Each structure stands twice: as structure tokens, then as C-alpha cells.
Task: inverse folding
């Protein structure tokens, strides 16, 4: 007997219905400023899919590098099992200042997804982001949930 | 025509849902990292399904995929951090939802879907849900071109060639200690000593064990879809 996943189709089991897909690019301009102890968000809202589907999200950054500066590696889409964090270095009070950039997406209404690039300034003074702009590509595919 | 131009393609299997359940629970406010909460659902599949899903704490005005959550300024810690986050795990007997909430107490609905892994045993009982029909030509069905597992006991990357010429969709899970989770979520709540990540380009899927302090065997389940 073949195992379940060997079948292309099997009427005993439901599947996930993919109802929409799109890509969004959000760019953080070079030398952006973020007030002390605050968050600056760059967002784009998109109408996509049916209400409250699953989100399959993959994220790519235009920079070279690996590790925390570019998880997954340059020119690759990171398979986002959780919110993705990038590490960058800017300036705060004239000194080098490391900061985090969070990239994620979530439903803000039944079929609207907000794509977010979020810079957290942990310093008490204004943070100036890196001198190179950052473009984040979010590849989003929505899937209908089965009845529960 | 390209594989991905078809809604379904009889050459390629599609995901099969073998578990789907919604649970609503109260997640109290945490004051330290040890105050995460764990909700369990027993199942009788006999193996661990590949689980994913979404949750909402405002009656589905907004919703988040597991591994995500909103950010807020936590006055207790005087820093910006995730207000509430949750992940879903599976074992051969249970589905486990783990959550931590730094904001005020919330009632949260979690919607969980379990997919059949590539090594699903024979003789599975039927699972009927999904408005009792499987296929609807209004929708695309993500076509699996490759699926399987790769195991490592050391840090490093296992490469799976797909050769599609474009970056395809992929779904990746890690397994160790009998628990399966979405890739990269191993330390989302708590610390496991294991960290993984996955990425994809036009030629390959890369399955990376980033941290493995105890030399544990980490099995990564992957599925690569024709859909880009």
C-alpha cells in the first residue's frame, strides 16, 4: 500500500486551498532617523485572499552577507517560520549603534495584510540607520483554512 | 505550461490535512520568561503531524501566524518587545500550543492545521472536514515537487536541489526530542539549545542548523512546491 503522501489526490483528506499570492517590497531609506526608545514602522497594506487565511511568508533582503545581517544568505528567500530579525549598525550620539529590524506580516482585517519593516531604537537618543538603504521583499501566499 | 500554471497537476501530490482544530484559551499576563503557558490537545494519529496555523485575541479583527505577534512598549521592562506570541508543536500523541503574553490577560483563539508528513504510515483513517469537498477550481493547490527529511548532528547546511530556476514556496519544520516545530521557532519561547533556519533560491533549498550545543540529531522536514 502506498503511503498517504504518495497520492496526488485522495478524497479522504482535505487540502489547503491557495487563494492568492503577491510580492511586496518595502524600502528603508539610508540614514533614516528613529526617535529615542521608540519604534519606526515602514508598512504597506495589501488586499489579499479570503478572510483570515494562513500566511506563507518568505522574505528576501537586497544586501549581501549572511548570519544575523542577512539570515538565509544573500539573494535567497528566507522561509519565515517566525518573525524575521536583521541586525544593522547605524549611529546614535555619533557612535556606532547596533539595532534590530523586524520583518513580518499579519492580518489587520479579514482580507487585508499589513507588511511591516520595523526598526527598534533601544537607545535613549535618536538613532540614524545605516548609510545604505535596505529593500525587503515579502513573498506572501494565502491559504484557506479548513473548517474546524 | 509551467507546473505552477495548473491549479492541480496529477504528476504532483498536494498537502493533505489530517488534523484541524480550533481552541480558545485565556493567556494570562506574564511577568517573567518562565510564565509562558502550554495548551495541549491529545490526538491518536500515532505520529507527529506538521502543524501550522493562526491565532487572534480580538475576535479576528486582526490575526497572526504562529511565530508572530504585535509589538508594544513594555513598561515593566522599559523596552519594545512582542506583546503576545505563540507557537505550535506536535508530538506523536499531542498538539502543543505554547504562548507568552506580556500585555494584559487575553482570550485567544488558536486555529491549528496538521499536514501529513512525508513518512505517514499506511492505513491512516480518513479525515473529513473542509466543507466536505476537497477540490474547488476557484483555488490553486500548491503542488509538491519534493519532500522529505534531512538530519544533522552538527551545525551546518544541508542543500536540497530543486532546479526550478525560480525561488519556490517551501515549508520547513525541525524535529528533535520527539517534537516537531516550524523552522526557526525552537527558541521563540524558552531555550532549546537548537536553532535552525531555511532559505531558498532559484536552484536549492538550504536547511541550516545554526546552533546545536549538545550534538543532538536534528531532523528537518521539508516540502518544496512548484508554486513560486
Result:
Amino acid at each position: 500500500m502506498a503511503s498517504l503522501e504518495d497520492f496526488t489526490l485522495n478524497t479522504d483528506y482535505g487540502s489547503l486551498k491557495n487563494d492568492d499570492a503577491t510580492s511586496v517590497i518595502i524600502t528603508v531609506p539610508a540614514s533614516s532617523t528613529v526617535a529615542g526608545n521608540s519604534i519606526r514602522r515602514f508598512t504597506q497594506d495589501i488586499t489579499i485572499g479570503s478572510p483570515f487565511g494562513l500566511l506563507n511568508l518568505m522574505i528576501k533582503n537586497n544586501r549581501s552577507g549572511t548570519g544575523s545581517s542577512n539570515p538565509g544568505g544573500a539573494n535567497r528567500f528566507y522561509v519565515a517560520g517566525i518573525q524575521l530579525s536583521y541586525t544593522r549598525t547605524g549611529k546614535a550620539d555619533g557612535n556606532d549603534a547596533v539595532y534590530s529590524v523586524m520583518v513580518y506580516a499579519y492580518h489587520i482585517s479579514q482580507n487585508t495584510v499589513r507588511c511591516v519593516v520595523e526598526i527598534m531604537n533601544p537607545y535613549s537618543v535618536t538613532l540614524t540607520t545605516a548609510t545604505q538603504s535596505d529593500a525587503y521583499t515579502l513573498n506572501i501566499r494565502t491559504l484557506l483554512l479548513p473548517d474546524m | 505550461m509551467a507546473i505552477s500554471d495548473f491549479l492541480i497537476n496529477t504528476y504532483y501530490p498536494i498537502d493533505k490535512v489530517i488534523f484541524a482544530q480550533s481552541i480558545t484559551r485565556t493567556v494570562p499576563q506574564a511577568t517573567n520568561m518562565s510564565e509562558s503557558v502550554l495548551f495541549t490537545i491529545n490526538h491518536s494519529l500515532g505520529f507527529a503531524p506538521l502543524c501550522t496555523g493562526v491565532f487572534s485575541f480580538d475576535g479576528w479583527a486582526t490575526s497572526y501566524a504562529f511565530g508572530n505577534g504585535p509589538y508594544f512598549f513594555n513598561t515593566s521592562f522599559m523596552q519594545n518587545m512582542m506583546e503576545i506570541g505563540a507557537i505550535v508543536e506536535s508530538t506523536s500523541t499531542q498538539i502543543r500550543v505554547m504562548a507568552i503574553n506580556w500585555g494584559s490577560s487575553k482570550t485567544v483563539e488558536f486555529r491549528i492545521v496538521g499536514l501529513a508528513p512525508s513518512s505517514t504510515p499506511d492505513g491512516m483513517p480518513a479525515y473529513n472536514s473542509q466543507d466536505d469537498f476537497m477540490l474547488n477550481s476557484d483555488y490553486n493547490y500548491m503542488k509538491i515537487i519534493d519532500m522529505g527529511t534531512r538530519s544533522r548532528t552538527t551545525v551546518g547546511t544541508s542543500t536540497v536541489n530543486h532546479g526550478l530556476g525560480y525561488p519556490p514556496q517551501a515549508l520547513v519544520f525541525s524535529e528533535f526530542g520527539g517534537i516537531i516545530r516550524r523552522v526557526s521557532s525552537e527558541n521563540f519561547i524558552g531555550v532549546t539549545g537548537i536553532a535552525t533556519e531555511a532559505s531558498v533560491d532559484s536552484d536549492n533549498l538550504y536547511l541550516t542548523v545554526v546552533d546545536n550545543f549538545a550534538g543532538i540529531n536534528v531532523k528537518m522536514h521539508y516540502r518544496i512546491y512548484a508554486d513560486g
